Amino acid sequence: MSRIVGIDLGTSTSEIAFLKDGKPFVIPNHLGEYITPSVVGLSDDGRVIVGKEARDQLLLKPDDTVIEVKRLMGMGGTVSMGGKEYTPQQISSFILSYLVDCAGKYLGEDINRAVITVPAYFSDTQRRATVEAGSLAGIKVERIINEPTAAALDYGLEHMWECQNILIYDLGGGTLDVTVLEMFEGVLDVKASSGNNQLGGKDFDQRLMDYLLNRFTTQYNVNVSEDKRALMRLKEAVEKCKIALSQQEEYHLLIPFFANAEGNPVSLEETVTRDTFEGLIKELIDSTEKQINTAFSDAHLNASDIDLILLVGGSTRIPYVQHFIEKTLGKAPQSLVDPDLAVVRGAAIQAAILNEQLTAEKDIIITDVCPYTLGISVLDYVGGFPITDAYDVIIPRNVTIPVVKEKIYGTVADNQTQVEINVYQGEFKKASHNNFLGKFLLKDIPPAPASQEKINVSFAYDVNGILQVEGQIVSLGKKANLIIETSGVEMVKEIDTEGWAKVPNARKFKAIIRKAERMLENEEVRYYALEVESLVRKIKTGLVQGEKLETLDEFKEELHEIIYELTEETDV
Ligand SMILES: Nc1ncnc2c1ncn2[C@@H]1O[C@H](COP(=O)(O)OP(=O)(O)OP(=O)(O)O)[C@@H](O)[C@H]1O
Ligand SMILES: [Mg+2]
């Protein structure tokens, strides 16, 4: 059997590594570089190119080049490259093929098995898409591991016999993960993970871009929002500016001949200070306090219990991020791992465990968690009234994996012959407010009075973070499985909700939103933080987008329930 390697398939950059003489070793690509841009393109002669070569043509051929495809994984869409549509899995498979090819040449052997890392907060669908990308590249994905867990492994291999609680704050190009874990006697025990799949360096770039475009438009009265090439040039320039501002207090940004104003070419020229940049991104970084708090409450730990903070991901080099962490946790983060390479090094360690180069007895063991709640929709009775679309939790978030949980349900109607099992992932009480993962039908239930026939639903969540669902008619032993489709997961899209309070219907919701926000601020919502936050956002977004009042009332009702529950609890 061939050797298993470790791969970090990142939003902005990707890497590949293996274990050499008991230590992780990052394998250089064909240019001799350890870090490969996650960029794919078509060359002039129609070849697929990956990495630096593709990145270099981005400005000249934006339509033939794809960047940041990871944020589209598992979302069901396609991307266009050279006039042809590709799935995000296909684009990712080109990156994987390239990495494996470079590694194969470097090691002088065929590589076709790998451990691939994903953000801890990646959904089931996104994980499946990652496995699919692997198989499209001809790679058997032997294990999917969470990026912060991988980073912890990298640290853990050298510090195995120390006893400490660690918080890993991983802010990369496109995702944020916060993970709390305990380390003792060679065991890395992940307690909780929380995160945001749509927050990272690319959003900081976007904020800076919007700011500069706004100023440019005001100054010259030209609109470049349709000019793909100008936007790409700006994107590249703002990233340079952002990175420079991690080292210096100000940066002079100049893009010559940026656009045409009244027939004359004009340049975009600005001096951006670190203060200005921090002002633009502060809100985004401050918002991650929520994920930190959620991770803490799920892990049943406080900031004061944390012995060590590790920063991972390129965006943690931003000084404001470091200040924010120190301010929020009351302790300075330490530079004990390489923020760019810790994840791939950890993936190589996991690969070595699978290769049996490292063993659980002598070396290291990890446990990981399922970061989301998983369940099904059921008919529930509250005070004698039927409530449809209730969410019944089967696997609560942050339980240690692998895990198998079962629950028994009864039929609802007399002589019911089939049930539809709808599977969701998320934290809401109403099933349909969560991410729908898939459904299946269990047929041929023997006719009987309501609730006499029993259905056993079992969820198995494996070490790759992939879910298998099974339903069984208990009296017959007949089973059906869920094949979860790999498309159609809805993700929360950020919408500007600033004007929500001015919408005619807003009055009805102001009081509860104010109350919820006050509770969030005062940290009175404990483990409901995500849910409360999300409901508030849903109401505001709904108001701005003219959503049906009925729907908004439902959200309000849910929020009300939580707030009621919390105040009840604290009153006791
Ligand atoms: N010195 C720096 N200061 C600020 N930002 C930086 C710096 N160096 C890199 N970055 C940013 O870090 C991001 C890339 O980080 P990294 O390579 O860790 O992400 P990734 O692994 O590709 O993404 P993800 O883990 O989210 O999928 C980019 O947005 C890049 O602009
Ligand atoms: Mg990363």
Please sum up the structure shown:
The protein has helices spanning 52-56, 88-107, 124-136, 147-158, 201-220, 228-245, 274-286, 289-299, 319-329, 342-354, 507-521, 529-545, 549-571, and strands at residues 4-9, 13-20, 23-26, 36-37, 40-42, 48-50, 65-66, 79-81, 84-86, 113-118, 140-146, 164-171, 176-184, 187-196, 250-261, 264-273, 308-312, 365-370, 374-382, 385-395, 399-401, 403-410, 419-425, 435-442, 454-461, 467-473, 478-482. It has 572 residues and is α+β, with helices and mostly antiparallel strands.
Architecture overview:
A hairpin with a 2-residue loop joins β15 and β16. It is built from 13 helices and 27 strands. The termini are far apart. The radius of gyration is 25 Å and the shape is globular. Helices cover 33% and strands 30% of the residues. By secondary structure, it is α+β, with helices and mostly antiparallel strands. It has four domains: 4-199 and 287-370, 2-Layer Sandwich (Nucleotidyltransferase, domain 5); 201-282, ATPase, substrate binding domain, subdomain 4 (Actin, Chain A, domain 4, Alpha-Beta Complex); 374-482, Substrate Binding Domain Of DNAk, Chain A, domain 1, CATH 2.60.34.10; 498-571. The strands form seven sheets. Strands 1, 2, 3, 4, 10 and 11 form a six-stranded mixed beta sheet that branches. A six-stranded mixed beta sheet has the order 17-12-13-14-18-21. The structure holds adenosine-5'-triphosphate and magnesium ion (MG).
